[in-house]
Amino acid sequence: MSVSLSQIARSSRQVFRVHSAFIELLTQHGLADCDSLFDTQNGTALRRLKNRENWRLDLADHGQPRTLYLKKHHVRTLGTRLRARLNFAAPSTPARMEAEQTERLARLGVPTMTVAAYGERLRADGTLIAAFLTDELSGFEQLDLFLPRRFKRSNEPDLRTLVARVAAVAARLHRLGFNHRDFYTCHFFIHETHPGEFAVNLIDLQRVQRWPALLRRRWIVKDLAQLAYSSHPRLIGSSARLRFFLAYLGRTRLDQRAKRFARSVLRRAASLEKKHGPYRDWSSSPQCCH
After folding, report:
1. pTM value?
2. Does domain 5-135 have CATH number 3.30.200?
3. Alpha-carbon distance 188 to 166, whole Å?
4. 24 to each of 32, 39, 61, how far by Cα in Å?
5. DSSP reduced 3-state for 227
6. Could you give the residue ranges of the DSSP H alpha helices within the chain?
7. Which CATH number fits domain 141-288: 1.10.8.80, 1.10.510.10, 3.40.50.1820, 3.40.50.720?
8. In the chain, which stretches have pLDDT less than 70?
9. What distance in Å separates the CA atoms of residue 114 and residue 160, rounded to the nearest whole number?
């Protein structure tokens, strides 16, 4: 489905945009404006942080269940209070950044989420609120959960296929000049469309950056190190990592330059493990919510 959004409301104090396919659904449930979407409590709270909440909304859509995921952002600072008092425009929020990055990458061929709506509003008391709503990736599962459920051995042919598909998505993102900054396996969502055939979608694009070519390598290494660090160690060993680098680089063998690149990624992954411990100790925490 296209992620192109239609503008519903825009002023110096607020923005609200919604995907045309979701206007009827959101209107039916009273969620077709920024305040209503932000204020709703009709769902399941998955995580509550100081300035952000993650919610699952289960809505009825023509008698059928429809699941969407909502991020709520809110902040009230001296700066936002001054903006409200002086009637200045609201600053850009994480919701707008994630929506715009998701739309942009989808247009460029990176498989990701469908944005249902997003909005931001600077309230009169100086509270800046924002909401980011996405459709469920139905049939998909986090890569960190999918791997141990689906595979028992590291040498299974289907696992090689999946490694190559993940590498292709990573390579597509990076060759377009972007880096993710949270490139952990919990942000890769997998759907086995047919036996041994996998769709791989990338989520959580709020922190995506784009750098000039000369400055890109450091951030790419950090991305791939996060992916290597968070990969299941029993299933993704040295052979699987080699296959990943070959697929990612589009090579049949690694030359000396490619080997240096791979070693820098793996050194960085090892430093992450030294600092944080094994990924399995924290990968199921709320930080990997939708």
Report:
1. 0.91
2. yes
3. 8
4. 9, 19, 9
5. helix
6. 23-28, 34-39, 78-86, 94-107, 143-150, 157-175, 216-229, 238-249, 256-276
7. 1.10.510.10
8. 1-12, 280-290
9. 28
